[in-house]
Amino acid sequence: MEKESDLETPPTSYRPNPSARHQSADIDIEKQSIDQGHNSQRQQSDEGDHEKDGQEEEQRDPNLVTWDGDDDPENPMNFKPSRKWRIAVMFGLMTFVVTFASSVFSSATMVTSMQFGVSSEVMTLGTSLFVLGFAFGPIVWGPFSELYGRKVPLFAGYFIFAIFQIPVAVATNLQTIFICRFFGGFFASAPLATVGGALADFFGPIDRGVAMVLFSASTFIGPVMGPILGGFITMSHLGWRWTAWITLIMAALFGVIGFFVIPETLAPVLLQRRAKKLKHQTKNWALHAEADEHEVNFKEIADKYLLKPFKMLIMEPILVLITLYMSLIYGIIYGFFEVFPISFQEERGYNLGVGSLPFLAVLVGVLFGSSIIVAITKTRTKRVFAEKGIVPEERLLPMIVGGALLPIGLFWFGWTSSKNITPWPEIIAAVPIGAGVMMIFLQGLNYIIDVYKINANSAIAANTFFRSWIGAGFPMFATPMFHNLGVNWAMSLLGFLCVALFPVPILYYIYGAKIRKLSRYTAD
């Protein structure tokens, strides 16, 4: 038994959990009682094992604060399912707002270019710079979320992002708009950098896969809804400035609600808080959490989020090709904010609001792709997990389906874009595009997480940085490309690029397990 402290015995919540050593000792005792007739050498061996186990128990730190058993209600993994999904929904709504903000300004490109006397290509910087902020933000918010928990960086970044909508709404020059759009994107990336890890704090592998669908759907529904609502706002009596005011109102509403619904979920931080509370309750100043035993190593953090991601992006074939594929998808989505106005407003003559409605077909596709992923996750993936544990390559089946749907949609869209053809075939073509984008992006993200495990944060940091640059660049050259090539051939070019990358998930589905064994950053 552990030697009890002379001080008042604190609540059991800081006592070490029953371990495998206890179970081993109980089994040995039972074996001794059954095998009393065995030779004395075996009895002495068993007694030696007991003595060794007892010594190990005594070596355990009695002042280490841990969870009070596997069913500790304060452990986020033990939250009620209803509470878990309330938190997940709020994460989704906050993610929706920041991604909505990334694209809503695209609807004001023409109006603002005329107001400030610049070309529409220059005004696309209002969208591109916001997305570029997504590239740099996770470098800050990722480490913060591991050091100080999920909630502080999440809401700090989110509320500062909301504040940056004000100078955009009242701006009288381009510099203010562009600078504040960039920093708005930088701070808006806080949810994008922290929500994935937060979901893993309280969901198991199967439910986490479903929750990630909600999160990823929000990252695409937001950009799709931005031009639709922004178009009607811009052409109304409210004007383009209200695209920022509406964003601020939504951010404030969901931010305040989320602040009271979303708790801290990172276990090490919660245990540190418990240890601090117990210190004052018991006056035992030796109480501590495991995280207190490790000093903050900024060199290690810099390596994890600055150096290692780029090393992995060069040395890891899985990460390189999956990131390249996801970056193309990301770029296509943000390029569409310039493409749809060309096809439906310039060529077909629709006004700003009606010309944005075809984006709803992309939304339908995103929801369709999400439902397919959920269905596969709750059936096949769940069954395979029960039999074999996590098999990363199982994430690739929906990705392969999405990889087939996307180029079909792109070719279909391009060659039905003529103004002499009814718009419905072109609009319907956006459905497989939305489904393909969703299935490729989400399952690519899940695959990276499952493959790199403890190095997943570094892998995702590299992925986010690279695809955000691509997403920021696409709107800049999309307009001249579609004007010069025409919608049909420009969409076909994107379709051919998607066809070229289609074998990537097939390759890893077949050979992924062998390739993973050759990596220094993967662990089975």
From TrEMBL:
TM segment ranges: 87-110, 122-140, 152-170, 182-203, 210-233, 245-271, 318-337, 357-376, 396-415, 427-448, 460-483, 489-511
SUPFAM superfamilies, alphabetized: MFS general substrate transporter
Presence of the UniProt keyword Transmembrane in the record: yes
Regions of compositional bias (Basic and acidic residues) in chain numbering: 23-33, 44-53
Listed Pfam families: MFS_1 (PF07690)
Annotated membrane topology: Multi-pass membrane protein
InterPro entries: MFS, MFS_dom, MFS_trans_sf
Family, similarity comment: Belongs to the major facilitator superfamily. CAR1 family.
Name by which UniProt lists this protein: Cercosporin MFS transporter CTB4
